[in-house]
Structures are given as C-alpha cells and as structure tokens.
Amino acid sequence: MNWLIAFLRDLTDLQIGFADLVDILMVALLIYGLLVLLKGSRAMQMLWGILAIVLLYLGSASLKLVTLSTILGKFLVLLPFAIIVLFQQEIRRMLSAFGTAPLSRLLGGPDEGPVMVNELALAAEALGKRRIGALIAVERRDSLASWAETGIPLDARFSYDLLMNIFIPGTPLHDGAVIVRGETLAAAACFLPLTTQAQISTELGTRHRAAIGLSEETDALVVVVSEETGTISLAVEGQLLRPLDGTTVRNALIEHLYQLGPEAEEEA
C-alpha cells in the first residue's frame, strides 16, 4: 500500500505537456499497427512465447532461482538476433506494408470492387468445370508485396479473360498463384508459404496447403480450384471453406471483403 501511495504521489508530480501526449499517441498507433499486421499469423504465437520466457525470467530472478535465471538471461541476450531470424518474413512484410500503403490502408478497410468479385467468381466456376487448377490470392489490409515479388509482375486491370488465360495448362504463368490487389492483377506465377498444420487432409495438394499457409500469415482471401476434382475452395484465416460454387464463393468474398451482414449480403 505504501508503494502504491508513493507511486501515485510521484505520478501527480509529473509535468505532462502537449509534446508528451503526441509522443505517447504516436507510439500507441505504431504498436497497434504492428499488432494488426501480426494478427492471425504464426508470428503472433511466437511473440506470446517470447513474452512467456521474459515473464519466466523475471519470476525466476525475483525468486532467486539462480540456475534457471542464468540460463534464461543468456537466452535473452541473444533474443534480438533470434527475433530477426524467427520474424524475418514478418519483418519484410511489415516494411513492405509501411512502404507501399498509407496508414489508412493499414487501419482501414479494403478497396476491392464488386466487378472484380463477380468476374473472379465466374472465372473460378469456369475453371472448376474444366478441371483447371488455379490459385488466386486477394489482398486485403495486409500487403502481399513480398509474395508478389516471387512471381512475374503484371500490373494489369483485372478481367475474366485475362485470369482464364493465365491458368490455361502449358502457358508460362499457369503454375503458381495470382495476386489480386484491388481491381488489378498484380503478379502471376507467385510462390506462397505452405501451411505446417499436421491435421490437413492428405487429399489436399500443394495449392490448398499454399492457400491455407498464406491465410495463416495474412488476412488475404485465397481461392483454390482443384485440378483433380474441379472443387472450388476459399481459404480464410487458416480455415478452408469447401466445396463452393460460383454463387457461394461470390457471397463469401463479398462477406469477407466488405464485412456485410446477412441482409446486405442478400442485396449484393
């Protein structure tokens, strides 16, 4: 109680000016932006693990557990280097997001248009009927620039015909993923991260694992068309929605892109 009273007394003696408030607000916005970028990714789970180790170290030091605190202390010395190694993909993604998108893009909503959604749904249905494999990632708030760099840049206006041509078997760009940014086909033949989930069905191939993997690390929506069965799937936040048809994949895209309620979704 005496410690609390002393802390409150010291707090009342602080002289907080306008510059201090701006400083605190900017740091809070920066931390919030980083948490938004890490939300739903494996990096967030690793971050909680690092925080648990730090708390364990503080607890062992306060209880004078010499051996445990010494081991954890040695580990914490190497922690900055471990963070660079463990979070290299996430650090690259965050820097790409800050460099290619304004703050409103990080904190605001998506800008995908309904024309793109309709044509994407029609293309997925047509590809499914022909049993042509396809992998299409739709960017939302999280930047997919680092994965777009692994493919061939297109920067072309999205269209049904162009998307169909890309995935025709035997063409140079058909193997890999297409990344959609707003109304633009940003890149094709891109490599996506594979999921490490052990419970994934053995019936799912590399396309489905890549779709789930990207949806685990970002908030992207990933449409998958199976080459073997023609089944349409949608990966969202590490989950795979399937089987879908042209109508259901369109409704799911609209729901997740615009966060519409049931009534608004029916009108769309």
Can you tell me about this structure?
This protein has 268 residues and is an alpha+beta fold. The chain folds into 2 domains: 2-107, no CATH class; 114-267, YojJ-like (1. The protein is built from 13 helices and 7 strands. The chain has helices at residues 2-13, 18-38, 42-62, 66-77, 79-86, 88-100, 103-107, 114-129, 145-148, 160-166, 206-217, 246-258, 262-267; strands at residues 134-138, 152-157, 177-181, 184-190, 221-225, 232-236, 239-244. Strand 3 and strand 4 (184-190) form a beta hairpin. It is elongated, with a radius of gyration of 23 Å.
Topology, pairings included?
Layout: H1 2-13, H2 18-38, H3 42-62, H4 66-77, H5 79-86, H6 88-100, H7 103-107, H8 114-129, E1 134-138, H9 145-148, E2 152-157, H10 160-166, E3 177-181, E4 184-190, H11 206-217, E5 221-225, E6 232-236, E7 239-244, H12 246-258, H13 262-267
* Count of all domains: 2
- Give the CATH architecture of the largest domain: 3-Layer(aba) Sandwich
CATH class of the largest domain: Alpha Beta
Largest beta-sheet details: 7 strands, mixed
Shape: elongated
- β-strand number: 7
Mean pLDDT comes to 80
Helix % is 55-70%
Strand numbers in spatial order across the main sheet: 2-4-3-1-5-6-7
Radius of gyration: 23 Å
First-to-last CA distance: 59 Å
CATH-assigned homologous superfamily of the largest domain: DNA integrity scanning protein, DisA, N-terminal domain
- Helix and strand run: HHHHHHHHEHEHEEHEEEHH
**Strand-pairing-aware structural class:** alpha+beta
Question: Which regions are unreliable across 5 or more consecutive residues at pLDDT < 50?
Answer: 101-113, 260-268
